[in-house]
């Protein structure tokens, strides 16, 4: 374990932090930090943090961790993974260091922003951060004009189990993407079903905000639910769910083949392509952190956009592994006011300005956080009428009808 200058000087927060670090194998990697500063220089919110990552680790070594834990730093990370991807010493800043700090604060009940507490309580009580009743999770099925099997009512064997996730299932705007995907899967003749009221949040953002107990509870519940159904593979609407099912659930023995919906559709592109009519748009694409930088999938979304006839595709200056985060990951969706107080500008606002500079009239996304945050940002920065935010599945659905 990393030693601080004076173990006796540890306050209760620091002790809780070190207990967590000691419990994870990656904790040892903190020793490998060479203080190069690449993490701090790369962090899109480092300028607003009282202790950006390099300074944070230096403070930990100097035995002044209690100040760090009481600063704004633990709640400003949006888990964009840039620091971790670039760190030459493979220090687990995103998955280990920040969640451990947050877990210490949650356990001691110190300084936890209210909006985050609400999302966590909602997840615990209702199985989703929005606080919506599970009985309404599949209401969107009534609003779509193709048949969708709700496996909670009709538990038959299917080829594809589609985990819709929380914002897409409940949020009035994000629901449009779900309906578009249902229509496209139906057009492809896919044999798919959803879990309906039996689905619960996959919980990746709850893990990253340090609520490891809640995450483990969700893994156990979801694992038991998945075990009761027969299917060949899972597809997900949300890259955060993709990340959790691919990288975290297997650590607990819940191990199923999973694809993000763009990967699934890209694998069926030769059947999809003849269905697509022309769309006359100039489109740029925002890589979601948890599909791209965290999991290395950059091609599937681009293949889908570029398969639409009539589309001119343009890249933003920062793209692929260098793409700027929307600010909604790692609990950022539930820490928006807190981050704004210190940063004075949302990352989503910076990002839509970057998108507009390409000359594109459409900013394509494939993550529900991106859709909701960028649509708001377009209004805030005055780009309405110039830039429209659409999920890739909405573009595919539009082209299919066109
Ligand atoms: S990038 Fe890695 S090695 Fe460099 S200061 Fe940050 S944590 Fe340390
Ligand atoms: S994950 Fe992103 S936001 Fe968090 S510390 Fe690293 S670079 Fe900063």
Note the topology:
Elements: H1 12-23, H2 38-42, H3 53-62, H4 65-69, H5 82-86, H6 93-108, H7 114-126, E1 149-150, E2 158-163, H8 166-170, H9 175-187, E3 192-194, H10 204-208, H11 212-227, E4 231-236, H12 239-248, E5 258-260, H13 261-267, H14 269-272, E6 282-285, H15 299-306, E7 312-314, H16 336-343, H17 347-357, E8 362-365, H18 368-380, E9 388-391, H19 392-401
Parallel strand pairs: 1-3, 2-3, 2-4, 4-5, 6-7, 6-8, 8-9
The structure holds iron/sulfur cluster (2 copies).
One iron/sulfur cluster (SF4) binds near residues 42 and 80.
Q: Can you tag this structure with a few keywords?
A:
402 residues; alpha/beta; Fumarate Reductase Iron-sulfur Protein, Chain B, domain 2; Rossmann fold; five-stranded parallel sheet; four-stranded parallel sheet; 19 helices; binds iron/sulfur cluster
Structure explained in plain terms:
The protein is of the alpha/beta class and 402 residues long. The protein folds into 3 domains: 7-112, Fumarate Reductase Iron-sulfur Protein, Chain B, domain 2 (Orthogonal Bundle), CATH 1.10.1060; 116-266, no CATH class; 269-401, AF0625-like (Rossmann fold). The chain is 44% helix and 9% strand. The strands form 2 sheets. It has a 5-stranded parallel sheet. It has a 4-stranded parallel sheet with strand order 7-6-8-9, with helices on both faces. The mean pLDDT is 95. The structure holds iron/sulfur cluster (2 copies).
Brief overview:
The chain has 402 residues and is α/β, with parallel strands linked by helices. Helices cover 44% and strands 9% of the residues.
